[in-house]
């Protein structure tokens, strides 16, 4: 039996443009300030951040791609849970009584700077979806 060759994964540089374009559209919908955007992306240097924002392209490290992936998953889960886009976008900013958030908003949890907090928020929303 011959082993079937697995396709080579895309180099992460090929994903930078689409990931950044999606991130900046999402950040606009969520009405995120520049400092919040930078924090969610893992605190890149200001010059790098503004280059990404201006060009909507660039080579991204694994950490930044992972962060954007979690954020896109959070955005998608919110769109499913709240058919009204305004309600979905607002949820992120509202205080949440769930133990995971301790009365703070999901955005506050996400802004801790740890990629694990993005994962936890995404996992929470996926569980809510069922």
Question: Overview of this structure, please?
Answer:
The protein is mainly α. It is built from 7 helices and no strands. It has helices at residues 12-29, 34-40, 46-55, 62-81, 85-91, 106-110, 115-129. Helix 1 crosses helix 4 (62-81), helix 4 (62-81) packs across helix 5 (85-91) and helix 4 (62-81) runs parallel beside helix 7 (115-129). Residues 1-10 have low confidence and may be disordered.
Produce the secondary structure layout.
Layout lengths: L11 H18 L4 H7 L5 H10 L6 H20 L3 H7 L14 H5 L4 H15 L1
Helix pairs in contact: 1-4, 4-5, 4-7
Average per-residue pLDDT, rounded, comes to: 89
State which percent range the strand residues make up: under 5%
Question: What about the largest sheet?
Answer: none
Q: What sequence of helices (H) and strands (E) makes up the elements?
A: HHHHHHH
Q: How many strand units? A: 0
Low-confidence stretches: 1-10
Structural class of the secondary elements?
mainly alpha
The radius of gyration is 16 Å
Quote the distance from N terminus to C terminus: 40 Å
The proportion of residues forming helix, as a percent range, comes to 55-70%
State the domain count: 1
Inertia-based shape:
globular
- Total number of helices: 7
Protein name: Antitoxin Xre/MbcA/ParS toxin-binding domain-containing protein
Domain Antitoxin Xre/MbcA/ParS-like toxin-binding: 77-130
Domain Antitoxin Xre-like helix-turn-helix: 14-73
InterPro entries: Xre-like_HTH, Xre/MbcA/ParS-like_toxin-bd
């Amino acid at each position: 039996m011959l082993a079937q060759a697995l396709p080579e994964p895309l180099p992460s540089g090929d994903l930078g443009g689409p990931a950044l374009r999606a991130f900046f559209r999402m950040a606009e919908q969520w009405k995120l300030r520049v400092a919040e955007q930078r924090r969610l992306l893992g605190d890149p240097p200001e010059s790098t951040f503004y280059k990404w924002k201006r060009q909507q392209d660039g080579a991204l490290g694994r950490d930044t791609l992972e962060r954007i992936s979690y954020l896109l998953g959070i955005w998608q889960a919110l769109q499913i849970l709240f058919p009204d886009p305004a309600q979905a976008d607002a949820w992120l900013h509202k205080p949440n009584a769930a133990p995971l958030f301790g009365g703070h908003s999901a955005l506050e949890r996400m802004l801790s700077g740890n990629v694990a907090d993005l994962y936890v928020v995404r996992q929470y929303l996926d569980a809510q979806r069922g």
